[in-house]
Amino acid sequence: MVTALKVLHLIIAITLTATVLLQSAKESGVQGVVAGGAESLFGKNRARTLDAMFARITTISAIAFIVTSVLLTILMR
């Protein structure tokens, strides 16, 4: 049980890190480097849909990370 929770915690941590890094900043940041020419593919709606999706995934990942952290702390005692 603890091992499965540790693996889940690691996956959530990686997901949280990736979504935070992929969110667009005011200066375009990492997403500008990674996305590159994708702007022409998605057009004007790209910013709204991807940013909203990344924000939602980040929120869910952060909550799951906190929950798994607390559960691991309780179970490791």
UniProtKB/TrEMBL annotation:
GO terms for biological process: intracellular protein transmembrane transport; protein secretion; protein transport by the Sec complex. The chain crosses the membrane at residues 53-75. Signal peptide: none annotated. Keywords: Cell membrane, Membrane, Protein transport, Translocation, Transmembrane, Transmembrane helix, Transport. GO terms for cellular component: plasma membrane. GO terms for molecular function: protein-transporting ATPase activity. Its main location: membrane. It is found in: Cell membrane. It is a multi-pass membrane protein. Belongs to the SecG family. Involved in protein export. Participates in an early event of protein translocation. This is Protein-export membrane protein SecG. The lineage of its organism: Bacteria, Bacillati, Bacillota, Clostridia, Thermoanaerobacterales.
